[in-house]
Amino acid sequence: MKHSHPAFEAIKPNIGSSFTTLKFLGNENIKSHVWHYHPEVELIFVCGGSGKRQIGSNISYFSDGDLVLIGSNLPHCGLTNENTNNEYEMVIQFKPDFLGEYIWETPEMQRISALLEKSKAGIVFGENLKKTVGKKITDMHESSLLGKLIIFLEILEELATTQDYRILNAGKYYLQTQVEDNERINHIFNYVKDHFKEQITLEEIADLANMKVPSFCRYFKKITNKTFTQFVNEYRITHSLKLLAEQPLSITEVCFESGFNNFSYFNKTFKEYIKKSPSQYRKEFNYFME
């Protein structure tokens, strides 16, 4: 599906509640091709399965489920599709001021307030937290209205106090850039998404952005905090992780299927990003899954 900029998504809270909780069985919530944003903060728990997450300018791969916090107006694609093989997906959406503006100024809420600020760059949480918080999110969904809110505050507190997390976008990839910036950068993102298996030259991508190559390179670095080559390589490496984990392809086939046309360059780039060779990654992944 082609689209030049992220769509605004309007979200209504559940009736009688100040925030929304949704449960999707399997891959009911197919939005992995939809690039969208909304003022609501979104906490997503994917139970089991593996796939690609594209949040801001970060593209990464998850296996055995996922727990991510996506801040207000941060553009992202959905996490699940027909290939994810997840059991279910829980989505919690809430406005940053869903409990009123001043509550975040109270001493009790300082840490959660800092968490919401950090979430503007996207946060992915570690393995143990994924399991414990995932269970709480599922319990919360089944609770009464007040029970829901109490469990939700406990979840936010747990996320705010853990060290077991990673920020997804090193640069400040907020949607609060100019509207024309968003249209332009998302046009570029979507072009990469559709063409990463082919060779993409700087000339054609600069042309797509209506810019000369040097000013395009500066512009892209300023917005995403990475060079265009780094961005494309990340996209390709993420795709290769998925193939290594899920497909019975040889490593050479994975290299070419991921858009690399040179095997030694693929190996070198893979090691740079993943800190191990493709064969080592596959071996460890299979061992972990067994």
UniProtKB/TrEMBL annotation:
Pfam families (alphabetical): HTH_18
Keywords: DNA-binding, Transcription, Transcription regulation
InterPro entries: Homeodomain-like_sf, HTH_AraC, HTH_AraC-typ_CS, RmlC-like_jellyroll, RmlC_Cupin_sf, Tscrpt_reg_AraC-type_HTH
Highest taxon, organism lineage: Bacteria
Coiled coil: none
SUPFAM superfamilies named among the record's database cross-references: Homeodomain-like, RmlC-like cupins
Ranges where the HTH araC/xylS-type domain occurs: 186-284
MF terms in GO: DNA-binding transcription factor activity; sequence-specific DNA binding
Protein name in the entry: AraC-type DNA-binding protein
The species this protein was found in: Chryseobacterium taeanense
